[in-house]
Amino acid sequence: MAADVIEVRPAEESDRRFLALLFAAVAGERDGIAAEPPIDVDRLAANWQLDGTLVALVADEIVGELRVEPNWFGFGEIGMMVAADWRGRGVGTALVVAAIEWARANGLHKLTLSVFPHNTAAIALYRKTGFVEEGRRVKQIRRSSGELWDLVEMGLLL
Ligand SMILES: CC(C)(COP(=O)(O)OP(=O)(O)OC[C@H]1O[C@@H](n2cnc3c(N)ncnc32)[C@H](O)[C@@H]1OP(=O)(O)O)[C@@H](O)C(=O)NCCC(=O)NCCS
Fold first, then answer.
1. Which of 24, 54, 79, 110 has its CA 20 to 30 A from that of 47?
2. Coil, strand, or helix at residue 117?
3. Beta-sheet strand order (sheet of 53-58)
């Protein structure tokens, strides 16, 4: 079978609702990202910061997104997700590679991120693309269940 052709491009106005729906679906998994339901999809779509957001498409369908949040100090914090049906097929890798290019082109000196320690797929993806572990924030995130989850901090010097 031919490999999926993955296109990565900057997010556009018409992507807002798809981005918010993807975010709500992944939040509903209560596993990989910090956000949990309920997600106000309309509000999220309206407020989504398109600048710095990259979308991955297969056959014109959005299957993943990555957002770089640059700040005054020269680094950018990233957050990302891939639709559940599309994981393990290179979409995440394509997004991170594109984000590194975007960050360099925009003059950033570093990319950083936070990831739950149990998120082995994400940690493998970040290591594979050059990120290294820089520390751990203990019991940082309170879940709706009441559990307190650590965060692993990772960074990539550009
Ligand atoms: C983390 C996530 C973005 C990875 O995206 P993806 O499209 O599945 O990633 P890829 O297919 O490009 O895989 C990248 C690497 O991750 C590793 N990997 C992928 N799936 C894995 C799994 N289930 N278990 C362990 N490692 C895995 C592999 O090393 C893979 O590289 P390889 O194919 O060259 O061996 C995706 O799983 C996701 O969206 N999860 C839910 C949201 C989330 O956790 N976001 C990140 C928050 S920090």
1. 110
2. coil
3. 6-10, 53-58, 61-70, 75-82, 110-115, 148-157, 132-142
